[in-house]
Specification:
single chain; alpha+beta; Aminopeptidase; 5-stranded mixed sheet; 5 strands; about 30% helix; Acetyltransferase_Butenolide; GNAT_dom
């Protein structure tokens, strides 16, 4: 795996590959508008995984860099799975210098629990203390929202 590298340089990110996976294949953000995904990347600490410069994986962290981090959108493209790359990526993220000394990390996942448990993630110790606002239909009107957010109108 000498040709595998991880970078936080957003200029290296292949937005089309990221959108193809997250917006078209993922269970967690299918049909997210491209501009919404791009805005999430712009406002996150992003980690790209590359094989000889071609992107093969991605993850992002939303954090205040002092107390809290949320790990999101973790994936390795299917043809590279089973090689330990997810483990390499999560290890890199957890040990990243800007993310040290945080009191709490969170992530939401329906799968790969075994992967995350290796890094200390557990089920919520006090699930009654965590609340959410979940708008399952948010992307149905996202084009209008994206236009408004960008100061344009239809």
């Amino acid at each position: 795996m000498e040709s595998i590298s991880i970078s936080t340089d957003k200029n290296l990110l292949d937005l089309d590959l990221i959108y193809d996976f997250i917006g078209r294949q993922s269970y967690w953000a299918q049909n997210i508008p491209f501009e919404t995904l791009k805005r999430s990347i712009d406002n996150s600490l992003c980690f790209g995984v590359y094989d000889n410069g071609s992107q093969i994986g991605f993850a992002r962290v939303i954090s205040d860099n002092a107390t809290f981090a949320y790990l999101a959108d973790v994936f390795i493209v299917p043809e590279y799975r089973g090689r330990g790359l997810s483990k390499m990526l999560v290890s890199y993220i957890i040990s990243y210098s800007e993310l040290q000394g945080l009191r709490r990390w969170l992530l939401a996942t329906a799968d790969a629990h075994g992967l995350y448990k290796q890094f200390g993630f557990t089920e919520l110790s006090q699930p009654d203390n965590i609340m959410e606002i979940k708008n399952a239909d948010v992307y149905k009107n996202a084009e209008v929202g994206d236009s408004a957010a960008n100061g344009t109108s239809e």
